[in-house]
Each structure stands twice: as C-alpha cells, then as structure tokens.
C-alpha cells in the first residue's frame, strides 16, 4: 500500500505591492471567515495612516494558500518595537489550515523579529503557537444578532438601558451618516475630545481617512447632532454580515442627552438596512466601564484569547492604559487643552498600535 504523499509547505514574505497576491490572500481570509484586521487592506491602511509598516507571511502547499499571518512592525521611541497582529486592531493573529502551518508561520515571524532586533510579537486572536504565552482574562468581545426591526431591537435591550434609549429618542437630536469631508471633520472633533477626556492620545486623522478611503464600500460614520453641533460619533466597519462600531465616542454634553445610547441604537437600524445581521460591539477590558456598559445592553462577554512571544531577556511591551505606570500621565493628559492634546496625541499614538 502506498504511503500518503505529504505536500511540501512553503512560507514566504508576502508582497503587498502585488495586486494578485493581495487578492489571493484576501480570498483566503474571506473563505476562512477571518477578521477584518487580518485583511491585507487593513495593514496597508494602517501603514498609509500611521507610517507603521504592514507586511505578513503567507503559507502555501502546491501553490494554494493555506495560512496567513498579518503583521504590523511597530516602532516607537516611547513604547519600543514589536510585531503586532494586527496593528490598531483588536483582532488578528494566525489564520491557518492546520497546526503545521501555524508553527511554520510563527517560526517565520520569530526569525524576522530576531533578524531585526524586535523583542516581541503580539497575536490578538487566531491560532496561538505552542510554547507561546497565552491568556484570555484581559479582554472580552461582545456580539449578538440584530433584531428584525427597531421595536424588536428596543425590546432586546434590557429594561434600564432601554429606558435611556427611549429618553434619547425624545430629544431633538439629528443623526447623519456618511463619509464626506464634513462627516470626517465632525467625527474627529467628537472623537478627539472624547479620548482626551479619558486621558488617551488621539490617533492621527490620516489613519481614519486611510481606513475610510480603503474600505469605501464597507465603512461609514454615524454622527449625532444637538442644535447643529456634533455630540457623539462613531466610525464603523461592515464585514461578513457584521457591523463593527470601532472608533466612537461622545463629548461631555452627550451624557445628558443620552447621545451615545441613541448613536448605537440608530447604528443598529442603519446596519440592518444595509443587510447586516450581527452587531459586534468590539472588545473591552474585563470589568471596565465599557465592559459593564455593553453587558447592560444585553451583550454577553466572550473572553478573547491573545498570545505573545518575547525574546530571551526582553521585557514585555506595556501599552495598557490601566497600568499603574501610566496613571499619573493619564490624569495629566485629561487636563490638557484640546488643541494641545490634538497636536501631541498623534505623535504618541502611532506607537500604541
């Protein structure tokens, strides 16, 4: 009896300047129900928007793609160097057909890190290689199916949160959706003030513009206005039937108007009309304020599994805003005048991928 033939596995550095190879990887990600953060177009948008280099390793057997590891090479004077899968994403990691492919892609990434003096690799999901450190207690994801219509959607929200939405619906608030220059300006004004109030440096405008341009058919901005002024806004992605509110927030006035509640409720209806069937509320740090907010909306937390490789003798990269090391800096950042925070923030946040 003839022994089964073992197909040779090859792992190479992907050429993301080659449209044909990008298309092949995009098809592989789609066929394997991969995350938006695993798409080559995500890496390319991050690079255009922040300057952090996007690349990846592709695995093939007999010319057929069987694995993909998207990576962003993050370099920061403040936060050090790392390979991140994927940069500025909450997901990513290795997408592989089997364990041999996972191990080979991980080995390629480690070899690249060693050759370029990069002390660590972070995988935000996907297959975690054996021997790598992994954990699932730091963050949780929140997602559920969308209801059939607005009234059913309201009833799907637990009573206390539903009451807040009903209050918002009674206010004279306007909701606009689009990707025009005015939409982008309104979103950045709200988002930058929101993250400043949380003590976090804002991402560059160029990152949001790069994403909206690259995902022209699968992203948009929904903004809530009060008396003509934007008070809450969110940039969302639409991927494989899911709507993903990703970069969003509200200014101080949004709280009294329940504008954030209205924003997410209106996004649910907008997404349903676009043919989406699931609302992906994104990740939150376990037991944080956003974690509790999402639970109060009836979303059940699902632990997210992350993995990490660290070179011998190297320290883990620490970009956790809840770390004691950053507590004083966060409090000082909250007090910065908004123009100063917006000028300095993008210079810092490029290293927070």
Description:
The protein has 353 residues and is of the alpha+beta class. It is 39% helix and 28% strand. The protein is built from twelve helices and 15 strands. The chain has helices at residues 19-31, 40-50, 99-115, 150-156, 159-170, 181-198, 205-214, 252-257, 259-273, 289-296, 327-334, 338-349, and strands at residues 9-13, 53-61, 64-76, 80-85, 95-96, 120-123, 133-135, 139-145, 173-178, 219-226, 229-239, 242-250, 278-285, 301-303, 306-310. The strands form two sheets. Strands 1, 2, 3, 4, 5, 6, 7 and 15 form an eight-stranded mixed β-sheet that branches. A seven-stranded mixed β-sheet has the order 9-10-11-12-13-8-14, with helices on both faces. Strand 3 and strand 4 form a beta hairpin. Helix 5 crosses helix 9. The protein starts with 8 loop residues before the first strand and ends with a helix. The relative contact order is 0.15.
Topology:
Elements: E1 9-13, H1 19-31, H2 40-50, E2 53-61, E3 64-76, E4 80-85, E5 95-96, H3 99-115, E6 120-123, E7 133-135, E8 139-145, H4 150-156, H5 159-170, E9 173-178, H6 181-198, H7 205-214, E10 219-226, E11 229-239, E12 242-250, H8 252-257, H9 259-273, E13 278-285, H10 289-296, E14 301-303, E15 306-310, H11 327-334, H12 338-349
Parallel strand pairs: 4-6, 12-13
Antiparallel strand pairs: 1-2, 2-3, 3-4, 3-5, 6-15, 7-15, 8-13, 8-14, 9-10, 10-11, 11-12
